[in-house]
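#random but structural
TW: two for the price of one
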Amino acid sequence: MNGKIRVLVVDDSALMRQFIGDILKSDPRIELAGTARDGKDALLQIKALKPDIVTMDVEMPNMDGLKALEEIMKTNPLPVIMVSSMTREGAEVTLKALALGCVDFIAKPAGMISLNIKDIGQDLIDKVITASTARLRTKTGTFGMPSRTLPQAADFRRMNPPVNTGRRDIVAIASSTGGPMALSDIIPKLPKNFPVPIVITQHMPKEFTPSFSKRLNDTSKVEVLEGFDGLTLKPGRVVIAPGGSHLIVKRRGGQAICGLSDAPPVLSVKPAANIMFQSVAEQYGGNVLVVILTGMGRDGTDGAVTLKQKGAYVLAESQKTCVVYGMPKAAVDAGVVDEVLPLNEIPDAMVRLVKV
C-alpha cells in the first residue's frame, strides 16, 4: 500500500467521533481524514476530503446512515463500514445497509460507560484495513475496483481436472466479508427441489443470524433456517450457523442432523467453517460439494483440504466478484480448488454438481 488509509468518521455523537477517531489513529497504517456529524455533513466532507474509507453511524438527524450510504454508492462509491447497535432492529438496518453496498459493519458499544478501546478497537482496525482493499459491489450487481489495489489472480476457471464422478450428498458453504450479499444472490436462485441439504457458515454475530436467515428464507424457494441442535438436514433445506456457535453435522439413528459446539474460536472466528467442514467430512466422507465465497482470512481452507483428500469437489468464488479475495485465495493457494467461478455462475454450478 502507498500511504496511509484515510478514514472519515461519521456520527452525531461528538464522544463517539472522538472514540472511533482515537482507535483509528492508534494504528500507524491509518489516518483520520476528518469527521462529520450527520449524513448531509458526510456527503460534503467526502467531496472536500476525499477519504479512502467511511465509518457511518446509522441513527443520525438530518440524514441517517442508510440515506447517506445510498447517496454515496450512487454518486461517489467508497468502502463504508456501518456502526450499528447489536439489537434486532440494528440487525435489520445493517442487513439493509449490506444490500445497499456497505462493505462491513461493527457493533456500537452499548453505553457510554462501556467505551473501552479494547472492546472493539482491533476489530475496527482490522475491518478498515480489509475494507481498503475491498471490491465495491453496487445495487445493480456491478463490481468496482478496490480503492487500494491488490495483485490480480490468474484468470483461470479450473485448477484440477473437473472430475465429478462421486455422489454429492450435501453442500457446505463458507463465507465472510461480502458473504451476506453473495448468499442473497446464490440461495434465492436455487430450485425448491434442490436435491441435497446445504449448510452454511457465515461469519456474523449471534444477534444478526436470526434476521439474516429469515430474510433469506423470505426471498428463496428453498427453506432457510438458523441452525439449532437436533435440526434435521434434508433436501431443499438450507441451514445457517448461528452466530457465536460452531455448526457441526452429526447423526442420530442414521439421520443427519445439526449440532452446536461452544468450542473456542478457530482463526479468531466463531462460527468457523473449518469446524463445520471437519464434521461434514466425518459424516459424509468425500460425497460433498464445498463452496468458498468472499471473505477475509483463511477460514475454510484446512477443512477443505480434509474434504478434498476424501474426494470432495471444491468451488471457489472468482477474485473478479469477491468483495474480499481472502478465503477463496487461501483455498486456491492450498491447491484444493477444482473450479473457480464468478458469483453469477455459482448457483447453476451447484445444481449441476449435485446431480448424479
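TW: number two ↓
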Amino acid sequence: MLVEDIHSTIVATIGAGGHPQTRAIDMMLWDEKGVYFLTAKGKAFYTQLMEQQYIALCATKDKKSISLHGRIRNIGSEKLDEIFEKNTYMQQIYPGNTRDALEVFQLYEASGGFFDISDPSHVMRDGIVIGQIGQPQTVESGYFVGDPCTGCELCYSVCPQKCIDISAKAAVIDQNRCLHCGRCAESCPEQAIEKRG
C-alpha cells in the first residue's frame, strides 16, 4: 500500500542544529527485504541519510495513513534500473546517464502503524514491522483492562468507537479499533484500565 497506493511520503531526518527536517519522498519499490527510495548524492538529504542511517516517515491518502521509523542503508545503484522501469516519470526527471547522480536507499528495519478512518464509526489500526527490529517486541501498546474490572460498563459508554467488549467479566478493548483517546481509563472508577507501551 505504501508504494503502490500512497507512493509519496513525508520523510524526516535530523537537520542542522539538531532540528527535525522533512521533505516529500516517493517510495518507489518494495520486496521481502524492505522498501526502496532514492535521492541525489548532492543533496543535504543524502548527507543526512548517510550520517544518520535512520528515518521516520508518514503518508496519508483517502483517510488511510502509514507511519514508520527505522533503519536505512545505501545500496548504491542496485535496483536503480528496476526503479526507473517501474516509475517511468523518473526517466523524464533524470534522462539518459544523468541518473548517475542518484543512489538507492533501502528501509530494511522499521516499525510503525497503519490507521484507517475511511469509515469514521469503525476505525481500524494495526502495527507494521519490516525486518527484525532488535529483539522481538514484547511490549503491548494501547489501553488494557485488568482484573479490578467490576463490569460496570462505564468504559463502554464513553468509548467513541464502542470497541470495548463488555460481555466478559474483565472488559476487553479491541486494539485494532481503539483510538487511544484514554476516555475509558479516565472514567474507570476502579482504575482497572492501564496504558501500555
